[in-house]
Amino acid sequence: MASKSSTRSKSPGYRCAECGWSTAKWVGRCGECQAWGTVGEIGQVGARTKAASVAEPAPVISDVDASTAQFRPTYVGELDRVLGGGLVPGAVILLAGEPGVGKSTLLLDVASRAAVSGNRVLYVTGEESAAQVKLRGERIGAMADTLHLTAETDLSMALGHVEALSPDVLIVDSVQTLSSSEIEGAAGGVSQVREVAASLISAAKKRDMTTILVGHVTKEGSIAGPRLLEHLVDVVCQFDGERHSRLRLLRAIKNRYGPTDEVGCFDLTENGIVGLSDPSGLFVTRTKDQVSGTCITVTIEGRRPLLAEVQALISPTSTPQPRRATSGLDSSRTAMILAVLQARARMDLSQKDSYLATVGGVKLSEPAVDLAAALALASAFMDKPLSPRMIAFGEVGLAGEVRPVPDINRRINEAERQGFQYAIIPSSPNGPGELPEGFRVRAVSTVAEALGVVFPAPAA
To answer: Which UniProt keywords apply (predicted)?
Structure first.
């Protein structure tokens, strides 16, 4: 029995590279995450790595030199905002986004600015030819003498360029297009992406070379390739935006050097991509005539308050099932708001088509938008315009109550800065705090109370 037990303990084990699930025998599909081709041998079960001798013991944390990990600005203000201050030497950044969103344009602009500021930059493109990238660079004005460009899909050749140039900044577009001849599988496969990422990260840490990797996304919107890729890099950024809108938003999903609640706003034009330090004007319609069915709100994207306009349209329907259409807002929350208006505010919407949309293609998912959506729908139902100098924000519950939301003062200050003078806000025990001079607020507890404020009953 002892020999059989000893033999069993030395049998090879296998582990999934995606989720870490282990099994005693090889299988083609992971039993935990159901991914194919991710289970590989992990050596001998029970084997132990022996300790190696070190030249000197680990230093005290206070003695560690942190000067090499200081931020270096990219001179793209919105990118620096998201990264926490700029690029860190040796950091590896993964930038993911849908095709055509502007990832390559943004990084080519960053590469040229880094080169102009005195850094040696290597741009490796695997999706386009060098001539195509140069044409884009000339179009957006991203040309510099210390910006080196090469079109490579072989990992060993890309690492050879790194050895020859010793760049301060390396940009790889994209990590899914590089492949190693020593690893089986096509470029973009799980094994290839893992090997490419590990080799580039090792080179970045060894040389204190800031590395930016472009990543593809799946049709579900997640980053393509093994989940291990997101764990290995230092920063993961998501770059997204509507294809038919010029607005692009950059968010940090993971950041070892800064916050993950910042949002960068960019305007994608024919001449390149431009950071927007004040993007609120993109989401608000400025018209001379007052129109029913519109309400301005203030939403928080990361740490930044943004003004956005919610538009509603109510029209009679001849079909048994009224239509409920939304654009830029969550459809389930919109259906809930319609139900609250019908049940708590006595608005008969059962035979009405309801349309709710945002201006400028912005997506509003924050619950604080509920009150503005409710007031816009009520305005469209009554065909009475709201005050053009008024904003509203607050979360609406199924009982018709208006719940408090965070950052009330920040929202009010942004509204006042944009020229608004009046706000309908949720009532809270501590109140709104100190208000800007000349700015008025009305705290409400229910949707019915808010409707009574904006649509007062005529005097008898």
So the answer is: ATP-binding, DNA damage, DNA repair, DNA-binding, Hydrolase, Metal-binding, Nucleotide-binding, Stress response, Zinc, Zinc-finger
How would you class 100 by CB atoms within 10 Å of its CB: exposed for 0-12, middle for 13-18, buried for 19 or more?
Answer: exposed
Rg (C-alpha) for the chain, rounded Å, is: 28
Across residues 116-141, what is the average pLDDT? 94
Residue type, 251: R
Do 74 and 92 lie in a common domain? yes
**Does some domain include residue 2?**
no
> Looking at the DSSP assignment, which residues form a beta bridge with residue 121?
147, 169
pLDDT band at 9 (very low <50, low <70, confident <90, very high): very low
Range in 8-12, 212-216, 288-292, 451-455 with the lowest mean pLDDT: 8-12
> Residue 431 maps to which CATH number?
3.30.230.10
Domain count, the chain: 3
User: Is 55 a domain residue?
Assistant: no
Q: At residue 18, does pLDDT exceed 90? A: no
The whole-angstrom separation of Cα 168 and Cα 187 is 26
Looking up tokens 């992406």, which residue turns up? 193
Residue 102, marked binder: yes
Mean pLDDT value across residues 262-276: 87
Q: Which residue has the higher pLDDT, 289 or 102?
A: 102
For residue 5, pLDDT over 70 is answered with no
What DSSP element (H or E) covers 82? helix 77-83
**CA gap 219, 230 in Å, rounded:** 18
DSSP H or E stretch at residue 273: strand 272-275
CB 414 within 8 A of CB 391: no
Chain Cα centroid distance, residue 192: 26
**Does the annotation place 100 within a ligand binding site?**
yes
Domain-located, residue 5: no
Rounded distance, CA 406 to CA 394, Å? 9
At residue 48, the pLDDT reads 60
Is 53 a domain residue?
no
3-state helix, strand, coil in the chain (%, to 5): 30, 30, 45
The amino acid at 338: L
The model's pLDDT over 203-229, given as tens digits with 9 standing for 90+, comes to 999 999 999 999 988 777 777 777 778
Domain encompassing residue 167: 68-277
For the chain, how many helices (H) and strands (E)?
11, 21
Under a CB-based contact definition with an 8 Å cutoff, are residues 177 and 215 in contact? no
Could you tell me the sign of the dihedral formed by the alpha carbons of 385, 300, 80, 155, in that order?
negative
The reply, when asked if residue 45 is annotated as ligand binding, is no
Q: Are residues 272 and 193 part of one domain?
A: yes
Tokens of 454: 């904006």
- For residue 155, the domain's CATH number is 3.40.50.300
pTM of this prediction? Answer: 0.76
Do residues 135 and 128 lie in contact, with contact meaning Cβ atoms separated by under 8 Å?
no
At 49 the pLDDT is 67
